[in-house]
């Protein structure tokens, strides 16, 4: 039996996925977590084969959770379940050690088969995301040749407000966005610009003439 741990900050989604998976005799949900840090604590005291993980969560997001989870259980299979279809994010997630990446609009069969394939060590990816990854790699090649990666109008607005030392809450209020959406834009920018924090982002944005 494949032991699955779920991590997502939406309880209704956790309940729905748990109910769905428990109908399959090969799968067993050992627990649920509302954020990455809670998932890590559960990994330390539970037997887990596959971690089904959301990217966008409070306290500790999915990307950071992957890094710590694999230190706790190097053999752990991590399957991302998210709404984010940004090509550069997908590429980064696989590089960090995830086994699969599925979107939340995936069918029940796709999710269940994805968990089983991940457990078997196979790479799992929602069908249409392959083209997204290829586009991302092409953008990276352009960047390596000295060209600036594609920054959306909204992402540029976020960069400019960060440069003005706005907090995430202030950016959200100014752009009429949720805090989670602002956090997603920042995370995407870190990947696109190949930086680790806001300071690096502002420096590179200035070097590129974006500010």
Structural commentary:
The protein is of the alpha/beta class and 211 residues long. It folds into 2 domains: 2-131, Response regulator (Rossmann fold), CATH 3.40.50; 148-207, Arc Repressor Mutant, subunit A (Orthogonal Bundle), CATH 1.10.10. Helices cover 54% and strands 14% of the residues. It is built from 10 helices and 6 strands. It has helices spanning 11-21, 36-45, 62-72, 87-95, 108-119, 129-144, 153-163, 168-175, 179-193, 198-207; strands at 2-7, 27-33, 50-53, 77-82, 100-103, 124-125. Strands 2-1-3-4-5-6 form a 6-stranded parallel beta sheet, sandwiched between helices. Strand 3 (50-53), helix 3 (62-72) and strand 4 (77-82) form a beta-alpha-beta unit. Helix 7 packs across helix 9 (179-193). It is elongated and about 55 Å long.
Give the gist of this structure.
The protein contains 10 helices and 6 strands; from the N terminus they run βαβαβαβαβαβααααα. It is of the alpha/beta class and 211 residues long.
């Amino acid at each position: 039996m494949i032991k699955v741990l779920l991590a997502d900050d939406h309880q209704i989604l956790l309940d729905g996925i748990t109910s769905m998976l428990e109908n399959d005799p090969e799968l067993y949900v050992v627990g649920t977590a509302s954020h990455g840090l809670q998932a890590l604590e559960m990994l330390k005291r539970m037997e887990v084969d596959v971690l089904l993980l959301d990217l966008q969560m409070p306290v500790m997001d999915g990307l950071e959770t992957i890094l710590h989870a694999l230190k706790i259980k190097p053999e752990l299979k991590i399957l991302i379940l998210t709404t984010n279809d940004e090509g550069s994010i997908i590429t980064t997630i696989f590089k960090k050690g995830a086994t699969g990446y599925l979107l939340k609009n995936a069918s029940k069969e796709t999710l269940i088969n994805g968990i089983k394939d991940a457990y078997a060590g196979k790479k799992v990816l929602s069908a249409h995301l392959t083209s997204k990854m290829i586009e991302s790699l092409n953008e990276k090649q352009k960047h390596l040749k000295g060209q600036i990666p594609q920054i959306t109008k909204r992402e540029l607005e976020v960069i400019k407000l960060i440069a003005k030392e706005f907090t995430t809450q202030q950016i959200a209020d100014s752009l009429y966005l949720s805090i989670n959406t602002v956090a997603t834009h920042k995370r995407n920018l870190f990947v696109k610009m190949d930086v680790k924090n806001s300071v690096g982002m502002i420096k590179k944005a200035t070097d590129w003439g974006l500010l």
